[in-house]
Amino acid sequence: MRYHYENGVKQKGKRKILWTVLPVLALLGGGYILVNTLSPAIDVMSAPPEATAQKLQSEKPLLDERRLYVPKVNIDVAIVDIDGNEKAALEKGAIHRAPNNGNPLDGGNYVVAGHRFQLGLLPSQTRKKSPFYHIDQLQKGDDIYVDYDGVRYAYEVTERKLVPPNALEIEKRTDEPQLTMYSCELAGPEAGREVVIAKPVGTIAWDDNGQPKLKTSVN
User: Fold this and answer.
1) How many other C-beta atoms can be found within 10 angstroms of the C-beta atom of residue 219?
2) Phi then psi for 213, rounded to 5 degrees?
3) What's the confidence (pLDDT) of residue 157?
4) pTM value?
């Protein structure tokens, strides 16, 4: 309490509590935002890449689901059609861009795009909304798998590059079948796009013992 000759006794306990609580709340809020923002970066450490590899070993593709798997960076995400609303589709997973330009079954350029970084309310939501966060870690020779209409297609990375945001040629149909994955730079769409190109190497078949085996066009 404090006495003032004009106002008498003043209560200042509430003000003290307020000035004590506000910095604590600010500190907690800042820490939460930092953890949430960094959650995709630490996802590989918290969920080892073997999780995706084990799923590929144990689960067969479903007829009614299309999925993308990249064991090296633990990508396991649904591939969805845009259906007129690209923003809403990206909330569900990666999207099939330019469907008329190719797919694993018919050949051409199968173009798949996804968010690089999208903030969610919780760290788990941020990781889920940022499936292509680690796309820049992919290198030539890395494995990629796509489940498409009940068949698991295997691809091998042949190239990774950074292109300007207006590089529409990455979505054009190609004479040879290929997979094109891309996402924005972490600095934002204006900074460019990270692009990964992969060639098909075969499909995955299961033997009599239930073990997956690569079936190439040579086999």
Assistant:
1) 9
2) -145, 140
3) 98
4) 0.77
**What pLDDT does 45 receive?**
41
Q: Mapping DSSP to helix (H, G, I), strand (E, B) and coil, where does residue 50 land?
A: helix
Read off φ and ψ for residue 32, nearest 5 degrees.
Answer: -65, -45
Residue reference for tokens 């845009």: 82
DSSP state of 129: H
- Write down the pLDDT at residue 181: 97
* Sites in the chain below the pLDDT cut of 70: 1-49, 119-120, 123-125, 217-219
User: Phi/psi at 206 (nearest 5 deg)?
Assistant: -110, 130
| DSSP of the chain | -EEETTTEEE--HHHHHHHHHHHHHHHHHHHHHHHHHHTTTTHHHHS-THHHHHHHHH-PPPTT--EEEEGGGTEEEEEE--TT-HHHHHTTSEEEE-GGGEETTTEEEEEEE--S----SSHHHHHHH-TTTTGGG--TT-EEEEEETTEEEEEEEEEEEEE-TT-GGGGS--SS-EEEEEEEETTEEEEEEEEEEEEEEEEEEE-TTS-EEEE-S--
Q: What are phi and psi of 87, to 5 degrees?
A: -60, -45
Using CB atoms within 10 A of its CB, is residue 19 exposed (0-12), middle (13-18) or buried (19+)?
A: exposed
d(CA 213, CA 97): 29
The pLDDT value given to residue 23: 56
φ and ψ at residue 47, rounded to 5 degrees: -130, 95
